[in-house]
What we know:
Layout: H1 2-13, E1 23-25, H2 27-30, H3 39-50, E2 55-58, H4 60-66, E3 75-78, H5 82-88, E4 92-95, E5 101-106, E6 109-115, H6 141-147, E7 155-158, E8 163-166, H7 170-175, E9 178-179, H8 185-191, H9 194-206, E10 209-210, H10 212-215, H11 218-221, H12 230-241, H13 246-255, H14 264-270, H15 273-291, H16 298-319, H17 324-343, H18 347-359, H19 370-376, H20 380-392, H21 398-409, H22 412-423, H23 443-453
Parallel strand pairs: 3-6, 9-10
Antiparallel strand pairs: 1-8, 2-3, 2-7, 4-5, 5-6, 7-8
Amino acid sequence: xxxxxxxxxxxxxxxxxxxxxxxxxxxxxxxxxxxxxxxxxxxxxxxxxxxxxxxxxxxxxxxxxxxxxxxxxxxxxxxxxxxxxxxxxxxxxxxxxxxxxxxxxxxxxxxxxxxxxxxxxxxxxxxxxxxxxxxxxxxxxxxxxxxxxxxxxxxxxxxxxxxxxxxxxxxxxxxxxxxxxxxxxxxxxxxxxxxxxxxxxxxxxxxxxxxxxxxxxxxxxxxxxxxxxxxxxxxxxxxxxxxxxxxxxxxxxxxxxxxxxxxxxxxxxxxxxxxxxxxxxxxxxxxxxxxxxxxxxxxxxxxxxxxxxxxxxxxxxxxxxxxxxxxxxxxxxxxxxxxxxxxxxxxxxxxxxxxxxxxxxxxxxxxxxxxxxxxxxxxxxxxxxxxxxxxxxxxxxxxxxxxxxxxxxxxxxxxxxxxxxxxxxxxxxxxxxxxxxxxxxxxxxxxxxxxxxxxxxxxxxxxxx
Length: 465
Ligand code: ATP
Ligand code: MG
């Protein structure tokens, strides 16, 4: 207690340049609502502390708590080693080979526990452009803080005494809504260019202003992203697109000049007027789903972002004499091949994208058994949501979307009527023939399956309920 008091007094008196001693804030000063802290995160810090270790919430969770927002997940930092952490919990798993972290599980809830990292040594191995390749030493808390990316992401919260430890002026930056990188911006972007994407994500998501010194080198350093392994870029891009602020993030990427040459995907998306409305609608509906806590499928998202590139190539193949369906598949191959180099689209995601694209021409066939077959497709819901985006963006006639909405909702008789309406040439009276009996595949069963396709694990598209 006395030690804490001394630290608090010392902390407050530190010179601003001394980043080895934290400024310590009590509950009245930081104003964090303890009810926003997950009980499982508290169990983790408490267990570690009772075993004699230091343990704090850290990173995005502390930032969000200070902003009065309920964090989506909780990370814990400690001076216990991964082995020591693992021994204290019933369901704890050491993850990663180089820098090990521990996943502590409580049912579905995951708390990520990391041992404090040491400072980056000058002789850590780097690539030709200065990107640090390996640097995995353990260290103490102030060394851990200096390795984090932004001042607002480098604060520690101890739920036991409800103090916040701030080594890099994160609190004043939170208050002035400023995003500031820790250390020399050029050096920090060079050692890990993924931080260029992170600046954009946080600025857009939090609606913070980027500090001018942090912002200045971004444009010049943008090409460094090209040397980062594709899988890491993909992970960071996915975080950006699923942040609930994807549209704002993409606008900010363009503003910072980061979309150019950064990813072929973004070049395509942001510089193609034809597809812009489509992408805008897709991202707006994704953002809406994320904010409502609904699941979003990465396959649907990337299928949307790249659709107009597919359409362009599809038309070109058709113009060169290919039949429509093979032309579409060739176009899909081209687009997926071009992206995999940079974006490392996982096989499952690429498969989902292809399914959604390949389904589109099938929506044109509104006669006979075809529509019933399509309803039974496990991916129908994603394909239908995608079709609705195509209608809303003006790419195709709204009438097609309306027809499919009606067809899904109709009972057997209604479906037959819709099919008859479609088959009948315009202007003609309905033929007075007896309605065909429904096939065993149609009707309630098909409706059930379409329904099943739109719930739980099969739920895919952003516009899906
Ligand atoms: P979000 O709420 O969006 O997940 P976050 O701040 O938790 O935001 P994560 O990507 O989950 O972001 O990272 C957790 C923490 O790890 C960050 O707050 C930061 O302290 C640190 N961190 C993550 N990536 C980097 C990086 N590339 N360089 C330095 N520090 C990083
Ligand atoms: Mg996080």
